[in-house]
Amino acid sequence: MRVATCPACGKQFKAATDDELVQQGIQHAKEAHADQNLNDDQVKQIVAQSARDE
Ligand SMILES: [Zn+2]
User: Fold this and answer.
1) What pLDDT shows up at residue 23?
2) How many C-beta neighbours within 10 Å does residue 25 have?
3) CA–centroid distance, residue 43 to ligand 1 (Å)
């Protein structure tokens, strides 16, 4: 599993691939952090920097 942590609230995401983590992150950003206006590329970057194997 690949695991990433939301830098804003610490919520953990788990998925089989980084692509799925990005999809979860985009959804989470819209639901929980709409005020931060994160675009898809920023979410991708966060996942690329913070995702790890578990
Ligand atoms: Zn969050």
Assistant:
1) 98
2) 26
3) 11
Phi-psi region of 51 (alpha: psi -120 to 50; beta: other; left: phi over 0): beta
**1-45 per-position pLDDT tens digit:** 999 999 999 999 999 999 999 999 999 999 999 999 999 999 999
Among 21, 30, 6, 11, CA closest to 53: 21
Beta strands in 1-54 (DSSP E): 2-5, 12-15, 52-53
Q: Ligand 1 center to residue 18 CA distance, Å?
A: 17
3-state secondary structure of 43: helix
| Ligand 1 centroid, distance to 24 Cα (angstroms) | 11
